[in-house]
Amino acid sequence: MASALTLRAGPAALALVRERGLRAEDVDVLPGASGGAKWLALAGLDRFLFGELLQAPRTRPLHLIGSSIGSWRMACLAQRDPVAALARGHHAYIYEQRYSPKPSTREVTEVLTRALDLLLGPSGVDEILSHPWARLHVITAEGRGLAASERRMLLTAGLAIAAAGNLLARRTLALQMRRCIFHSAGDVTPFAHLSDLPTTHVALTRENLRAALLASGSIPLLVDGVKIPGTPRGVYWDGGVLDYHLDLDFGAGEGLVLYPHFYAHVVPGWFDKGLRWRLARGDNFRRALLIAPSDAFVAALPGGKIPDRRDFYGMPEAERMRRWQAVVDASARLGDELRELLATGRLADAVKPW
């Protein structure tokens, strides 16, 4: 049977994995990419990583950083029982997302807010903020210029300007949006140095955590922008607009950046999806180990693809739910295969250089 996993490692990560395998205490950073329903294809991998591998004792923080659904995944890991949080999140995402034929942004916002509340449960916020070693970083995009407007016509114009400028250089995105990271790491965040785009840092609190997570997944024109308590007057949008797959400088630490991802490639920003020359070249992934579903695994999924937002429009609700649940069930194979590679000491043999 063909492998269900694709594993790629930057040079420092490859050397570390060849020396001593994959150990929880060697992992410094765990990124989570944007991608909406694509997270369902990683369910089994996340269950193994979050519930088994990364639960081993550790003596230093594990920095979790995500945008959009990636931040929701990281919020699951930062709860006391991450597997239960994942189960709540998967169920809510599959079965609680019911919309009218042409939902307004208000309707979509209300549905996603309920899904987020289910994922967090009654005590998730406090568990995240008091976690002994998990430090959550939530990437949002603060609207600037026309993108600070909640009026559809002005917002559309702002996004069009951002997309046009992005063709020339990613830094032009700062004219319409600024990266804002809400995190629980205090002064020890490894992302304080980020300078590829203007970046501000705000402490996560009981008052702003839910709003920050909701904002991180608020796709402009589909979901309402979010006003986050304790921040200057303004509106915050999906962090994936700026940081789609998190092509970030992860810092100069000696440990691993463990990156469970939907794909074997990384797209920097949402506007870069169709720009093949913008795929990350690996400079930021020197110490990263990327673990993704293989092409063979994806080909065997319902429809031969990973779930995505287009499924809402392309199939009846009951069929979408059935397919998405089938993907979650099939994804158990990803966690099983990684567990076996670690148990047999064959992980390094399966990893290809980035």
UniProtKB/TrEMBL annotation:
InterPro entries, per the entry: Acyl_Trfase/lysoPLipase
Designated name of the protein: Patatin-like phospholipase
Natural source organism: Roseisolibacter agri
